[in-house]
Design brief:
The complex is a heterodimer of chains A (about 160) and B (about 270). By secondary structure, chain A is of the alpha+beta class. Helix content of chain A is about 35%, strand content about 15%. Chain A has a 5-stranded mixed sheet with strand order 2-1-5-3-4, with helices on one face. In chain A, helix 2 runs antiparallel to helix 5 and helix 3 packs across helix 5. The relative contact order of chain A is 0.17. Chain B is α+β, with helices and mostly antiparallel strands. In chain B, strands 4-5-8-6-7 form a 5-stranded antiparallel sheet. Classes of the chains: A alpha+beta (about 160), B alpha+beta (about 270). Chains A and B meet through strand 4 and helix 3 of A and helix 2 and helix 6 of B.
């Protein structure tokens, strides 16, 4: 077992883990943060995307021990329980950017990463290119792209990063 | 995934010592090849030595007439680096096409080269640009470094520390990617170097990255897509699978080389 200490959604966490524990397993099974999903488990679908030190990564292809000493943010960390949604979450709700919802946490974490890197004014082509690591099997992406475009603009006026 | 012990050395020397002490230990940095392979139980190293916390190992800088990229520089760092963009824009462009944004946040140049996947992008750049692979023990020329499928000149306790790229006069990389995996079905890197011209191909060869000497000879006389018209690349020795036949890959090598030449010349 290996002892790890990290910050998850702003809270310090310490745990003993088997070194082969994936970050996504650790989040879901140890911390019960089940918003981060396992889709393909082969780093292609993006359902497991979280932020590691502020950057979008695939938590199915990251070992929990590699996150020792680092900061992780999951979909649960975007807005407090009962508080208004993060502007990107609100945009997905408003523009119907989901059907079954399975890919949505990964889509939203990737979307926020896109805004951090590319700014608040995103054209559709950029959004589609940047979503190449996130797969949705229901919507055909149209409303996801619309949601991200709107969410990016809304983030400019929000205190939530 | 089978059990293993995880190590996080602070220096290259410590990392090398761990490799010596622990037989069959593997180096990990971004983990974007090794972790999937371990999940499939195709690899089961009893020890993992994580290089990603060694300070200064991801430095990108100019040294004289060479661009020097540290082994743990991530694809996103190379793609976004102003230094790389200025020195060898084709290399920044190559890095920006690896995997997807989240993969590029983790994967490293050293990892890609140590693994030498026959469909990886970096080997094409390293071979075409005539780069030098620097390890904790020695310097290896690209030609001697790549030794076939997933095989390199690296010894068991040898660690890549940086890659030195001499600046080309002109260069470009064009990739025909597998739509599902984002790996290169065929990728061609062309470089007009002060002394010669090199054309390196990834994704197509059954022994990994290789150079197309017939193209290079013709391009030495004239560095333009017209110069290689009519020169056929033999399908022999190329990969054939559900994604494309050897003949199709041979055809793509010609098409992509011409596109790469046009792109390299368009940049002036």
């Amino acid at each position: 077992m290996a002892k790890i200490s990290l910050i998850v959604n702003g809270n310090p966490v310490t745990a003993n883990v088997d070194p082969r524990t994936l970050l996504v397993q650790f989040l879901r099974e140890n911390l019960h943060l089940t918003g981060t999903h396992v889709g393909c488990d082969t780093s292609q679908c993006g359902a497991c995307v979280v932020h590691l030190d502020g950057k979008a990564v695939k938590s199915c292809t990251t070992l929990a021990v590699m996150a020792d000493g680092h900061e992780v943010k999951t979909i649960e960390g975007l807005a407090a329980d009962g508080a208004p949604l993060h502007p990107m979450q609100e945009a997905f709700r408003e523009h119907h950017g989901l059907q079954c919802g399975f890919c949505t946490p990964g889509m939203i974490m990737t979307a926020i990463d896109i805004v951090h890197r590319k700014g608040h004014e995103l054209d559709d082509h950029t959004i589609r290119e940047e979503l190449e690591g996130n797969l949705c099997r229901c919507t055909g992406y149209q409303n996801i792209v619309t949601s991200i475009s709107a969410g990016a603009k809304a983030m400019a006026k929000s205190d939530l990063a | 995934m089978y059990e293993f012990k995880y190590h996080r050395p602070g220096t290259v020397r410590q990392a090398a010592n761990l490799l010596v002490k622990n037989e069959d230990a593997k180096v990990i940095a971004g983990g974007h090849t090794l972790i999937p392979v371990m999940k499939q139980r195709l690899a089961s190293p009893p020890h993992l030595v994580d290089l990603s916390h060694i300070e200064g190992l991801n430095t990108i800088e100019m040294k004289g007439r060479s661009l020097v990229i540290g082994a743990t520089a991530r694809h996103a760092e190379v793609a976004g680096s102003a230094i790389v963009g200025e020195a060898i824009p084709a290399l920044a462009n190559l890095a920006s096409q690896i995997g997807d944004p989240a993969v590029r946040h983790k994967g490293t140049i050293g990892g890609s080269l140590a693994n030498n996947d026959p469909t990886a992008d970096y080997p094409a750049a390293v071979l075409a640009l005539g780069a030098t692979i620097v390890t904790n023990k020695r310097r290896l020329k690209a030609e001697e470094y790549f030794q076939g499928l997933f095989s390199t000149a690296l010894e068991a306790d040898e660690i890549i520390t940086k890659v030195m790229f001499p600046l080309p006069k002109k260069a470009a990389y064009i990739k025909f990617r597998n739509q599902a995996s984002r790996y290169a079905l065929v990728g061609v890197f062309v470089a007009r170097r002060p002394s010669d011209v090199r054309v390196a191909v990834t994704g197509a060869g059954s022994e990994g990255v290789f150079r197309v000497e017939a193209f290079e000879e013709a391009l030495k006389k004239r560095f333009a897509s017209k110069a290689i018209e009519g020169i056929e690349v033999p399908a022999e020795g190329l990969n054939s699978d559900i994604h494309g036949s050897a003949e199709y890959r041979a055809h793509l090598i010609g098409v992509l080389t011409r596109r790469a030449l046009d792109a390299a010349n368009a940049k002036g």
